[in-house]
Amino acid sequence: MKKLIFNIIFIVIVVFCFFMLEILLRVLKVGYSTEPFVLHPQLRQFYIDNKELRLKYYPRKIDLSRDPIKNIFMAHKPEGVLRGFVIGGSAAEGFPFYSNHSFSKILEAALSESGKFKKVEVINLGFSAMSSYYVADVSKKLLKYKPDFVVIYSGHNEYYGTISATTGGGHLTKKIYLALKELRFFQLIFEILGRSQWKGIYSRTMMAEQFNNRVLPFNEKLDNYVAKCYIKNIDKVIKKFTSKGIHVIWVEPVCNLIDMPPFKGKNDNKLSNYIVSYYNAIILKKKGEVEKIEKELKGLSGVSENANFIYLNALKDYYFGDNAKLDGFIEAKDKDLVPFRVRTPIVEAIKNYMNSHKNQYLHYIPLQSRIEKNFGSGGFGNNIFIDHLHFNFKGHILMAGIIAQEIANIYGFGENERKKVIEFLMDENRIREKIYFTPLNDFVAYRSILLLSKQIPYSDMLIKFVPSPDLRNPFLTNKDAYILSEEELFNKVLNEFIEKKDFEKALFYLNSVLAIYPGEARNYLAMADLQSMLNQEEAFYNYVLAYVLSGRKYEYYKKLENYLISRHQDVMLNKIISMYGKPVK
User: Fold this and answer.
1) Per-residue pLDDT at 189
2) How far is the CA of 300 from the CAs of 174, 194, 267, 316, in angstroms?
C-alpha cells in the first residue's frame, strides 16, 4: 500500500513539474503557437495567419518571417457572410501561384458575383508538403472560426509529405507525435533533433528534401495501408464537421498524366538507351522506328514492369490515335518509383468510402470524370497542369468552376445567380482583373517550375518533363526576368510603368501585391505614395493602414504626417493618434 501511495505521489510530482515547466516555456516564449490563426496585433477585430503553424508539421525549423499573410478575415462573423476553408497540400495552396491567385480566391470572387451572400470568404489553409495528417490535425481547430463549408483537396503527399509513409512510425505513432508537438517542451526537443537530422540540405526545395533519394515501388500491401491511413484521417474531419451541420466538399485528387513522364522506373539504368530512343521516335512520330524498337523490346526482361515503358506505350497509342484511354498513363503513374502523384489505391479508397457513407453534409467531386467531361482524356496534360500535379491558371479556373457548381447546388442558387457565376468564370480577363493577376505573376509561377525542374527528382528523370508556359507572356523573352529576384523584378517593372506615366498599370501591379500580401505594411505605404503622387484621396486611407499595420513605426508616422501637412490636414494627426496610439521610435 505504501509503495502504491509513493508511486502516485511521485507521478503527481512529475506531472506537476512538467506542467510548471510548460508554463515557464510559454511565458518565456519558447516554442510556437499551433493555432491556425491569431488576432492581428493592431487590428484586433481581424484574424490573420499564424505563420508559426507550419513549424508543427515541418521536420526542422525554417524561416517563415518573409512569408505573406495570405488570409485576413473578421474575428466576429457577421450575418449573411459565407465562410469556407480550403485544406490540403501545395495543390490546395495554389503552388506555384500565390494562394490569393489560386482557385480558392477565384472561387471566392465567383460566389461573390452571384449576389446571394452579403460577403464571401474562402480562406486557404493549403501548404507545401502537407499530408492528410495535417488536414486531420488542423481541422480540429477550425470550428471556432465558424465555417459554413470546408473543401478538402489532399492525397498527393501521403508518401513524401512532412508526415507520411516515409517519415517513420505507424498511424498511431504519427498521431502521438502531433499531440506531443502541441507542448512547448517537446517542440524544443524535436527542434534540437531536427537541426542535426537536416544539417546541410537547406538549399534544396521542399520537394527535394522530402524525396531525399528514397524510392517506393508499387506495393499492394504498403499502398493499401497508406490509403487506409488516409481514409482514417479524412474520416475524422468529415465526422467533426458534418456532425455540426457544416458541409464538407471532398475533391478527388488528380494529376498530370499525359505530359508528365514517371520520375523513375524499375531497372531504368539497364533500359535507359531504349527508353530515350523509344521516346524520341514517338515524339517525332516516326512510326517505322517505333515498330523497330518495339520488336527489340520483346526480348528484354523487365520492360513490362518499367514505369517509363508503360508510359511510352500509352503515349504511343495517344499520339498515333490507336487508343486515347488513360489506363496506361494511370498504370505508369502508379508504378513510378517516386510517388509524388496520388496512387490509385487512395482514389479507390475514397470512392469506396463515399459508396458506404451517405450524409447530407458530405459532398464528393469525382474530379477525374469532371475533367474528362470537359476536355476528354486530353485534359490530363499541360493544358490545365503546370507540372506533375499543380494546376496552371486555366486549371485553377476550372477547379473553381467545378467547386462553385457544387456550392451552388448546396445553397440552392437560383437560375440568375448561377448565370452570374458562370458568366464570370467564362471570362478569363475579368477573373484576372478581379483578383489582380498580372503577366508578371504568371511568369514568376513558371519560373518556379523551371527551378523545380533543375532539382531532384526532376533532374534525374530519363524522359525530361517540358514545362509549357503561356507563350503570350511578355516576360518570357526578358533576360532580366530570369536573373532578378521577384522583388527586384517587380520594382523594375513598376518603375518602368511610372516612368512611362502608365499609372493605370502601375496601380494594378501594386494592387496585385496587396492581394498577395494583404497584411504587409510596406505595400500599403508604396500604394499610398503612388496615390499621393496622383492626388488620389485613397492615399490617406493607405497611409493610415500602413501606419497601423507597421506597429506604429515612426518612419510610417512621418510619411503620414508629411502627407497631411502637405494637404493642410495636420489636425487629423491627433485623431489618428487617439485611435491607434503614438508612434514607436
Assistant:
1) 83
2) 43, 45, 11, 19
